[in-house]
Every structure is written in C-alpha cells, then in structure tokens.
Amino acid sequence: MATTRNQVAQLYTPIYDVFMLGTFKEETQKHREIYKEIMDSTKEFKVDDISGLGIWESAAEYASGNYEDPVLGYPKTYTQSKFIKKFQASFESVDQDEYALLKKEGEASAMGRGARARVETDTAQTLYNGFGTTDTGPDGQYLWDTDHPKNREETGVTYDNLLSGAFTHDNLELAETQISANYFDMKGLPIECSEDPIILYPPALKGRVQRVLDERAGERPGTTNRDINRFAGRYKPVEWRYLASWNSGSNTAWYIIFAELGFLKIVWSQKPHFTSWIDEENDAYKFKGRMLYDQGVDNWRCGFASTGL
C-alpha cells in the first residue's frame, strides 16, 4: 500500500503533540507552587467571598438573640482567554524532507516552551504588578497596599500587607511583626499563618535568601552569642525567574505567600493541546497549539510583599 500525504501528516502529528505537551511540563513551573489550579468549562468563573462569624459571646440561660450575619467580600470574575501558536509545512517540504521534521526535536519542543512561558509570565505579572503599576484588586486597592478595607461594611478598618525594605534578617523579623498586626479575616479574627509559608524571590536575591534562611545565619562576624537562626526551616524558599527585571518585574522585590488559602488562582477551560489538519487549497500541513485560561488574585490575604527598596 502506497504512503499518502495524509498518512505522512498523521505520522508527524502525534510526535509533535508529544513534544509540545512534554516540554510544557519540562521545566518546573513555579506558578504551581503558589496558584490553585481550577478546571472550569463555563464562560466565567466567579468567586464570591463570604466571611465566617465573629467571636462568640456569653449568653444568659433561656436568653434569645446573639444572631449574627456573615458579610460578603469582594467578588472576582475570571474570564478565560485563548492563546494559540501555529506553524505550517508545505507538501513539497515534507515530500522532499526539507525540514527533516521527524528528526528536528528541538524545533518541535519550542512550541511547548512558548506555552509555558506565556503562563509563567502572566502569573508572575499578577504579583509584581501588584505594587501599584496597573490594575487594582477586587477591594479597589492594589494587591500590595497599606489600606485594604476589613470588609464591604467596615471600610474604616484597614489592613496593611505592603512590607518595606530589602530582604534581610532584620526586615524579615519586621515583616513577621507586621503580619501579626494585620493578618485578620473579614470578621476581624486573626488568621493563623501556615507553618511553612513561601518566600518568593527573583534569582538576584538567591544568595541573600539562602544566607538569611540558613541554620547558621546567626553566626555572622562580630556577633557575640552566635545564636542559631530561628528562620531556618520556617519558610519554603522558591526562586522564580519570571519575577526578574528582564520580564518587566523586579530584581529586589520579595514576597511571603500563604498558598494554602487558595486566593491566587489559575482557571483553565482548556489545558495546552495540539491539533493538525491538511490545507488542500494551499498544499500545506498545518499545526496549532491552543489553551484557554485566566489567572489572578481574589483576596489580598494571599500574602505580603516588599519592593525591596
């Protein structure tokens, strides 16, 4: 049986598919460390935050009352966008093996890398743009700000999740004090921090973060007591290239993220996938990678951050 052009195209398709999807997962995607992934096929994914109840009160025997209503937070809508990348190969290039498609694994892999870069770029931008460069969050404030309202009904009470200063041992201690004074829910009850919050940073801060979090960080020249470092094992350090200045981010900003609360979200309608078809009109094999998603933050309580300046 003769090999037709259609059959040749079908040989190429699954190989490119494997390359595209495989390289999408090739390098560790750091957004997965802090973003909650959600699969949703609807046009819009809405988050309507609602509080719990406040502190319990004493009551007399047979007494009525003491009812309390929860309060609504600030709604957030995620609307998935489509992202694609295409390429094509003429019948002649395949017939004559001009591109040696089956042998050029590197070129095929690049399709997956581009999809991964898109997702990493978008999710990183949500964090570094939160310092007041673009959009405000659901509560009308920038993600990292000094005056987040307690809730929609008690806007006179505000909280501050904008840290200050470069990443240092002393500034991390100050950050913990600020978190303790500002980390409350919509009813004003303290939020208990996770046992291993994430310290997120660009590559330029790698050495500094490692020194501060090392178990022997307290043994610095000139110290008297040579104390152990209480930060050792307290935080999970995560270095993210896409936070850096080359990606319009910052080489000095650092973040303390409480990922377990799920306030940072990436909502997928379609994970990256690959299709192909034959264009008989133009004598070409065509290939396309496609994905649909949105990402963002629906509550400032996802963490605290400093510009590092």
Put the structure in a nutshell.
This protein is an alpha+beta fold and 309 residues long. The chain has six helices and twelve strands.
- Main sheet, how many strands, which sense, barrel? 4 strands, mixed
Element pattern in H and E: HHEEEEHHEEHEHEEEEE
Query: What is the CATH domain class?
Result: Alpha Beta
Radius of gyration from CA coordinates: 25 Å
Uncertain regions spanning at least 5 consecutive residues: 1-13
Order of strands side by side in the largest beta sheet? 1-10-11-4
Helix content: 10-25%
Number of domains: 1
Task: Considering the chains and any ligands shown, give keywords for the structure.
309 residues; alpha+beta; Major capsid protein gp5 fold; 4-stranded mixed beta sheet; 24% helix; 23% strand; globular; disordered N terminus
Which helices and strands, and how do they pair?
Elements: H1 5-24, H2 31-34, E1 36-39, E2 44-47, E3 76-79, E4 81-90, H3 91-95, H4 105-128, E5 148-149, E6 158-159, H5 169-182, E7 198-201, H6 206-213, E8 236-239, E9 254-257, E10 264-279, E11 284-297, E12 303-306
